[in-house]
């Protein structure tokens, strides 16, 4: 999936070292060169939309709530405009410390290959790259599922949504849980990546670490 979306003419020999995936950036060292693959980070509304879409599909709701992402679910991500695998190199800012500027170098090719292998083993690698993580994703799908069930339930219009109800009542138990707070800095980092893409981004990257 990753290799098809991001074609690279070659792959540099040698191991991929110092692998890291964080919101917006995949980084690694290949044959002594520092490689960085930067993508726009999805905003909170994007995640809400895709998680609501997954929760609304019975075939995806169960696996999503279990923290799994079937390959077919990528179609849902694409439909709501948040592809887990960027459609080609266009939306990405790719950089390598080698001298080959005019095309995709073998070091980038090696990182794309590694990303594909890791995403096959755990697609949440791609979720993290796009700005979320497994537990946050599961919580969002759970909240969306609870909202949808509440709306569709036979007594939904009379069900109390917020305070005032007996905390032990079924209505409160089944009501919408609060969404977990976003990791600090995520939304801002996403906005910065979006604002600066697709130009040279390395100078802007320390924003991910700056907030201490
Ligand atoms: Zn290179």
Automatic annotation (TrEMBL):
Residues 148-158 have a biased composition (Basic and acidic residues). Residues 76-116 form the SWIM-type domain. One of its GO terms (molecular function) is zinc ion binding. Keywords: Metal-binding, Zinc, Zinc-finger. InterPro entries: Znf_SWIM (IPR007527). Residues 145-167 are annotated as: Disordered. PANTHER family: SLR1429 PROTEIN. This is SWIM-type domain-containing protein. It comes from Nocardiopsis kunsanensis.
């Amino acid at each position: 999936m990753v290799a098809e979306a991001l074609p690279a003419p070659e792959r540099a020999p040698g191991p991929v070292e110092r692998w890291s995936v964080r919101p917006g950036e995949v980084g690694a060292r290949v044959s002594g060169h520092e490689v960085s693959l930067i993508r726009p980070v999805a905003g909170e509304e994007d995640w809400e939309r895709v998680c609501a879409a997954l929760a609304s599909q019975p075939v995806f709701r169960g696996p999503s709530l279990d923290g799994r992402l079937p390959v077919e679910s990528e179609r849902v991500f694409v439909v709501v405009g948040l592809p887990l695998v960027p459609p080609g190199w266009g939306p990405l800012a790719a950089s390598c410390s080698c001298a080959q500027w005019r095309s995709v170098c073998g070091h980038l090719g090696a990182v794309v290959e590694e990303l594909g292998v890791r995403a096959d083993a755990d697609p949440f690698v791609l979720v993290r790259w796009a700005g979320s993580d497994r537990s946050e994703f599961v919580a969002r799908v759970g909240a969306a599922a609870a909202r949808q069930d509440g709306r569709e339930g036979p007594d939904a219009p009379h069900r109390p949504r917020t305070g005032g109800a007996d905390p032990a009542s079924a209505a409160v138990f089944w009501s919408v849980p609060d969404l977990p707070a976003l990791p600090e800095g995520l939304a801002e980092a996403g906005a910065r990546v979006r604002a600066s893409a697709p130009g040279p981004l390395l100078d802007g990257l320390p924003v991910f670490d700056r907030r201490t």
